[in-house]
What we know:
By secondary structure, the protein is an alpha/beta fold.
Amino acid sequence: FAAINRLSHNCATVNSSEVDIVAINDSFIDPNYMVYMFQYDSTHKFHGTVKDENRKLFVSGKPISIFPTNIKCGDAGTEYVMESTGFTTMEKAETHLKGGPFADASMFVMGVNHEKHDTLKIVSNASCSTNCLVPLAKVIHDNFVTMEGLMIIVYAITTTQKTVDGPSEKLWGDGPGAASIASLLQLVIPELNGKPTGMAFHVPTPMTVIDLTSSPEKAAKYDDIKKVVKQTSEGPHKDIWATLTARLFVSCNFNSDSYSSTFDAGAAMALNDQFVKLISRYDNKFG
């Protein structure tokens, strides 16, 4: 029951009266420690009440069943399963499959291709970085036609990156890389296949920034690019992503920001009409 699951719980229960969290699967920590993490999260505070009783969590008075290994989602009345540990195949998610739905998942990004999932029961909402990058990349490509792009992600440190040397399941330099995000971008927007690549840096901050350098086929003044991005962010997907028009922010200002992507117009720049650097920000866990 790590950070993304706790934050997903908070978003679902605080922002919607139509969602009830009924079950949690975690084989690593006991309920008492779940309570501790809820109460003392150093980045995202939870302001409700939390207690454990008879192997159930009671969050703001509502009971949540806990399944360490044998996941009985059906017994808990589960209608939807949100898998947040990175399983994307039936083989790895077999324990979920026994008690609830899961399979090899098609990928969708809100504000880009989410309306295409109507007939599917099982979907992937992609990664946080993908949700930040793809809306911005789509706007640029739809309006100016991307010839090539290079992205740099200054990525918020996660639990798998150690601040001192120590044993780990990953090499110390490993982590979510921008090259893999580029491949996901191409999966969501196939017409960009072969055009983007990138790299990532991990820093000890809870927020993340994406730096997208793009070479559009159609020459455009930076003011025109800003205008198009701003218009799009104020349109049908205004609850998904936003545009900042003044450079008055630092990364910590985006703590608990609910947008998938916030285009920082004041931090971006253009070398010429066919070479532009675009900056977008997001809360690594919350957006």
